[in-house]
User: Fold this.
Amino acid sequence: MKNIKVLGSGCANCKTTMKLIEEAAKEKGVEIQLEKVEEMQDIVAYGIMSTPGVVVDGKVVHAGGVPSRDKIAGWL
Amino acid sequence: MTIATLQLPHRKPHAFLLIAAVLWFALYMVLEPLSHLLVGTLPVEPGSHLYDALQFFLYDTPKVLLLLTGVVMVMGMINSYFTPERTRVLLSGRHEGVGNVMAAMLGIVTPFCSCSAVPLFIGFVQAGVPLGVTFSFLISAPMVNEIALALLFGLFGWKIAALYLGLGLSIAIVAGFVIGKLKMEQHLEDWVRDMERVQATVGADELTLPDRIEAGFASVREIVGKVWLYVLAGIAIGAGIHGYVPQDFMASFMGKEAWWAVPASVLIGVPMYTNAAGIIPIVEALLTKGAALGTVLAFMMSVIALSLPEMVILRKVLKPRLIATFIGVVTLGIMLVGYVFNAVV
Assistant:
């Protein structure tokens, strides 16, 4: 099971990103564990400079702006 | 045919950009005659208030939206060259002075959203970008943005757009420089100050031209999709003022003679939060009714550059005194710009 974290302080784009990932996982039938990281100190610990960021299994794969559906599909 | 058109940005990106540019200009050129034609077909008496308001609305709406789309597309592509990571590399280790100038200019082309202000701030500080230089960036990024410039250019012409650009950059440079000179590093929150320093690096950039075109489209979808409603509302309010408020109505309390108008506009502007797209059509209408240019620009700058939500977010990394200094220095700069403008124009 993949562990996916969305890093962001609760802006609209972060929520959209969460929703898109959930949808994509459901569509593909992939089981994921989706977490939201809102605490600023935890977010910057990943070293990203723009939110929302996405971390898959401990690795930063995306930062800044809502990721495209294709990109999300690639992570799953 | 449709499939061929859809693939053009990928197969022949240069041809696609050329065709898109030509079409865009053609469309831009026919807008004004078209709006007159359109209003002419309506059962409204020419020269009446309603006629003026309608013509303003029918001409300005497509014009502003077209400008916005064009500029956001181009900026989306330019942005793909200037990621925050790359900007950080360019700024780390710079000294104050040159660093402030560079930071303010990079603020124009680096994509920025106030919700990312904190990670960006920390990323800069961690990589050894001086505090004052970081502030130059933080001030310029929201204030001197492509939407504001495109709208100013479209509605008032290049002179005012250039003035806004120059003054916005000056405020960002000087305010950042002043904050740097005040040596306020101890007013960062403790956890920020104690963070490990990192070496700023940047990965290889493998984007191709079609990728950048795609990035341009993405920002058009995101930004135009988000602000078009503000633009429409702004133009509607503007059209109302345009058609119905008597000429020189604004002159009495936003004109040059009212010395208190500049600080008052700034004070009203700070708690207001909207983006450039929403405020500029209103600005245009205010101007045509006799409000002084400096007063109106000061109002606009304070609405865009100083926003309450951003201060709340920044409070997580800055102690109150530094936030207060930041607001104070920028407010002073904006007021100065307002007075100077009113004095020379």
